[in-house]
Amino acid sequence: MSERRLAGILVVKGNTAMALHEVDAAIAHYIMARKHYINANHHRNAARVTVNLLGAALVDQQRTLFGKFRKTLDAKSDSHLTDNESAYLLWLDTLYGSVEKKKISPEVERITLNLAPKLLAGGYITPVKMILDRFGATHLVSLEAQTKTNKTRLKARLVDHWCGSP
User: Fold this and answer.
1) What pLDDT shows up at residue 154?
2) Of 2, 76, 78, 80, which is most buried by a Cβ count within 10 Å?
3) Alpha-carbon distance 132 to 105, whole Å?
4) What's the longest Cα–Cα distance across the chain?
5) Signed CA dihedral, 53, 129, 74, 64: sign only
6) CB atoms < 10 A from the CB of 46, how many?
7) What is the pLDDT of residue 97?
């Protein structure tokens, strides 16, 4: 099996472990996936899985692990990230000080509210909520607030057909 394929499987295992709140397992899978991506010279994927690893490290309040792997992401690595991954990384960097002080700062509250749609769109809601739960601040990323929109989801002719005319 190729390094890249093995790394992809490990990322899926890490994501599954995070969804199951098995943070230690997620961290181990992300570290192994990162190593396999680097061995296969897939630095873009290595940078992307590093972002997941950083989130898991903060969920587990492992600031040393966070610092170690955060140093591996340079300006070149940042260009490999999607907008949602960049938003998550910005959020993690901003949150780092609050984890250290064990108290959410007003800046973190503000940036969480601003970035919540990108964090949700990027699939980061589970680790974000796990981190915010430690501070009693999960209300900052409530799903209801993120999914409200003024945009009609169904066209009027479809609504009339299924629901009847008002």
Assistant:
1) 52
2) 80
3) 12
4) 62
5) negative
6) 22
7) 86
Tell me how far apart the alpha carbons of residues 59 and 137 are, in angstroms, rounded to a whole number. 14
- What mean pLDDT do residues 72-84 have? 82
Query: Tokens 């903060």, residue?
Result: 58
Beta-strand ranges (E) seen in 7-128 are none
d(CA 104, CA 112): 10
Question: Do 88 and 51 touch, CB atoms closer than 8 A?
Answer: yes
Structure confidence at residue 158 as a pLDDT band (50, 70, 90): low
Non-local (6+) Cβ contacts of 78 within 8 A are 47, 86, 89
Determine if residue 41 is left, alpha or beta; phi over 0 gives left, psi from -120 to 50 gives alpha, anything else beta.
left
**Both tokens of residue 89?**
């990384």
Please report the DSSP string for 107-122 in residue order. HHHHHHHHHHHHHHHT
Residues 6 or more apart whose CB falls under 8 angstroms from that of 79 comprise: none
- Contact in structure between 90 and 82 (CB atoms under 8 Å): no
- Chain mean pLDDT for the chain: 85
Tell me the helices (H) and strands (E) count for the chain, helix number first.
Answer: 10, 0
Closest by alpha carbon to 27, among 46, 53, 49? 53
**Dihedral sign, CA of 31, 36, 39, 44?**
negative
Residue pair 119/87 in contact (Cβ under 8 Å)? The answer is yes
